[in-house]
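Support request, please re-run this one:
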Amino acid sequence: MDGLNTVLEYLTSVPAWYLATSVGGQPHVRPFSFAQIQDGKLWFCTARSKDVFKQLEMNPAVEICAVTKDMTWVRITGKVSFEDSHAIKERILSEQPMIKGIYGTADNPDFTTFCIEHGGYAIADFSGNPPRKGSF
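Re-run finished. Output below.
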């Protein structure tokens, strides 16, 4: 399995995972629950009115962490880029009723998408074995 699919498998196997931003040396962590792959990129969505959007505009570096029931976790690092893709938004809305309930349509000006095109990841557990690392 390639790195991008490995990362997506972890993110979609849990009800929520955590995205961390840092602005002015202050970390900010919040739960997210949506990710998908399209065009060789890992995609997410948010609202332009949220603090996370403003924080990512100021500093696009992120770290993501997801922990599975068996206490295996993935940490993902990368830089996001905002690519307000109508096609990605349409796909998100068709696959995610909760997000459709929030934003309604892909034309909602508050609804935006962002991606990580090149990132790294580490998968670890409590076995004492070194983490498995990769990139996408």
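The chain is about 25% helix and 45% strand. The first helix runs from residue 3 to 12.
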